[in-house]
Amino acid sequence: MEQYKQEFIEFMVESDVLKFGDFTLKSGRKSPFFMNAGAYVTGSQLKKLGEYYAKAIYSKYGTDFDVLFGPAYKGIPLSVVTAIAFSELYGKEVRYCSDRKEAKDHGADKGGFIGSPLKDGDRVVMIEDVTTSGKSMEETVPKVRGAADVTIVGLMVSLDRMEVGKGGVKCALDEVKDLYGFETNAIVTMAEVTEYLYNRECNGRVVIDDNIKAAIDAYYEKYGAKQL
To answer: What is d(CA 150, CA 144) in angstroms, rounded to the nearest whole number?
Structure first.
C-alpha cells in the first residue's frame, strides 16, 4: 500500500472523521463504522486533506486536466484545497468550479456555478467526500456536461465504502462509472482501511480489534459489493 494511503487512513482516525463502533446510517443500515468528512475543520486538517486528494488524483489521473469540480456543498472546500495542493505539489495550475444549489440571478457572477467558468475543451476531475448511492452525480454530471463541451476525466472520493449501490449488486462507484462512462476512484477503500488498521495501534489505541473486525466482516457479508 502506498505511503500516502497509510498516512491518510491514520489521518482520518486522528481527525475523528472515521469512527468504529455501532452506528445507524441515513439508509437505516446498522454499520460498525461511520465517516463524517464534515469533521475536517481546522486549517492544518484542510491543508493535509487537499494534499492527500492531490496525491491520489495525480496517481490515478496524472496532470492532464484543467478543472477540479466539487459539487455543492462539501465539494466546494474540497476542490479549493485540492487545487492549492496540486499547484504546490506538482506545479500545475488547475481551476476550481462548483455548482450552486440555487442559481444566482444578479451581479457579475450570476448563474449556476461559482469559481472558474467551464469552457469548451476543458478536462474535468470531479471531487467528492464519499459516494454511497451516486445520487449527487445524477444531479451534477448533467450540469457539468450542459455547461460546456467538456470531458469528465474521472471522479475521486476519499473513501470507497464498497457497499452495494442502488442496483443492489455493484458498489456506487462502479455504478457511476457504468452510467456515465468515466473512471471512478477513491483515496482508500474500506478493504485497505481494514487491512491496515486491524490490530494496529492508531492514535494511542487499537481501533479495529477482533470484535470490530468480525462486525465489519458481517456487515460486508450482508451489504458488501466486494469481499474484504
So the answer is: 8
106 catalytic residue (yes or no): yes
For residue 184, the surrounding DSSP H or E stretch is strand 183-189
Task: Answer yes or no: 135 catalytic.
Answer: no
Contact at 8 Å (CB) between 204 and 20?
Answer: no
Highest mean pLDDT among 19-28, 41-50, 110-119: 41-50
Catalytic residue (choose from 30, 47, 104, 119): 104
Backbone angles phi, psi at 126, to 5 degrees: -80, 145
* Torsion sign over Cα 50, 58, 86, 51: positive
Contact 125, 67 (CB under 8 A): yes
Indicate the pTM of the whole model: 0.92
Give the whole-angstrom CA distance, residue 150 versus residue 123.
6
Q: What is d(CA 62, CA 68) in angstroms, rounded to the nearest whole number?
A: 13
